[in-house]
Amino acid sequence: DDYLAKPVDLDELHVAITDALQLAPVTDIDRSEPLPPLPENAIFDSPASRRLLKHVAVVAPSDAPVLIRGETGTGKEVVAQLVHAWSHRSAGPMIAANCAAMPAQLIESELFGHLKGAFTGAVDTRQGVFRRASGGTLFLDEIGELPLELQPKLLRAMETGQISPVGSDQSYAVDTRLVVATNRELEEEIRQNRFREDLFYRINVVELVLEPLRNRCEDTLPLAR
Fold first, then answer.
1. What is the pLDDT of residues 86-114, one digit of tens each?
2. CA–CA separation, 27 vs 12, rounded Å?
3. String of b and e for 116-146 (b: at least 16 CB within 10 Å)?
4. What's the pTM?
5. For FRET with 80, which of 28, 70, 93, 176 sits at 20 to 30 Å CA-CA?
């Protein structure tokens, strides 16, 4: 339809995309379009939900990190499970961890593991969720609750594919696809110096926004049933 010369001017890019979208206006997704099978707990009957499913189907086969946004209780973990189930990693593990539910003093160990004796109470060696999810998908819920001092370590794990357990000088390779979720406005967290901007851009390669139930009323009755 068009071409742009490098270096790309962002204003020209915006105009080119706008023109292209006008040539092919977005319409409601045809319910007859085939999608991978849904588990019983996944209710997506509304037009908004079906559009989201379309995006999930496109994103799932890649290994790109995914950020799922939505209010509490909108079903972000269900969407994360779909990303895993529709990916080439579906035969691997799907490990879920809630950053808000981890004890602050143990969260590094929960994520990256620890060696026996690394700290008081470490009576056994533990792998951590990153290594347990290797070959599959790691879902980190409430990513906005991750302590600021641990965010560089998560960033490094994503950039290098290597993790270092607590108390170890050795690094371990992990092949883990990361999906995270939040009900916070991470941009505001960045402005308040509570979330690292570089980590935000690393986890937000693909963004999926889950509408609250009040905006997808067609899902209410099937959910009730």
1. 999 999 999 999 999 888 778 888 898 87
2. 25
3. eebeeebeeebbbbbbbbbebbbbbbbbbbb
4. 0.81
5. 28
